[in-house]
Specification:
By secondary structure, the chain is mostly beta strands. It has three domains: 82 residues, no CATH class; 103 residues, OB fold (Dihydrolipoamide Acetyltransferase, E2P) (Beta Barrel); 103 residues, Sandwich (Immunoglobulin-like), CATH 2.60.40.290. Helices cover 11% and strands 32% of the residues. The longest helix has 12 residues.
Length: 355
Amino acid sequence: MPGPLQLTAGVRFDSVRLERSRIARFKVTTRLHHRESASSTPLKGRTLRLQSSPRRSDTRGGSLRLFDRHRPVLYTPFAVLLAAACGTSSAETPAASPDSSLPQHVTVLPPPPDSVEEVVDGRTVVLSNGVKARVLGLAAPAECWSAGALKFAKDTLLGKPVRYSRASESAITLRLADNSDYATRAVSQGAVRAEKDDPVLSEPEKTAEKAGLGLWGSPCKGQDTTPTTSTPPPPPATTTATTTPPAVKKGCAVTYRVAKEWAGGFHAEMIVTNHDQTPVTRWGLRWRFPSGQQIRETWGMTAYQYGPDVMAMSQDGNGSISAGGQISLRFNAATAGPNVTPTAFTLNNTTCSFG
């Protein structure tokens, strides 16, 4: 005899006896036993005894009778199974997990450099963004050396990437791919002449003139028009003269020039010269603005300003000025009143001469 069978709804069958010979029709008589005498005891926890009956007098075959202390109620086997199924607990549907994907970070790259699409002459260019302007500090090409200036500009600039900064409505400064200044390179190689009294380009021009480079060599010899061939004058009489050697300069010198002014701002250029016989390493240039000027943009240096005091250093923080050499520094600044020129400068805590 098989043991008690436990249904999901909590109904136990003590025994089930079925006559296999009467498969087509049978009756199950259920005797219900209570632990409690109250008739309202729920179905769960009750013990049911099922057995087959061969009596012919009961024609309700295939039905299940539940006997309680009240009137018997008929249940079909399907009803019992339905009651058992209703007692099962349904599985909970897991909640959808929130989207935990993180936002993607975007790296903003700096704008690409412009390029020179056309070279008009030795100092005028047209950029890829449509800007047409002259290079600040360069003189207008003259008849004798204009062709050489145009060739130098095309070889150096045409189709090459450059970065520019406006000094005025019609003038710009150009930085090449190696971060060098185009005006300084052109003047130092004698391709063009610097504008008159330009403090930034005067030293590179003297160097080119001394070496006889470009327009300072043949045939121009520094002239704006091609000189005519003539018989050279006789050499002067040789005289012995005692000359006093120039005094050796020491320390440093600073020239300061306002190249352009506009309402509320200006563009300034400085030349720092090292007169010592040893290079100046990790240079730092200090000065004070006397009328509240505020630096906005710099070229060739990194500047820190605290009120009127300014500290400038090389862009890589480890620059040097060679013995007898110089560096060119430029910046744009804002001003709310008169633009008074600073005159006191120190280089690595050494006072520099001005002018």
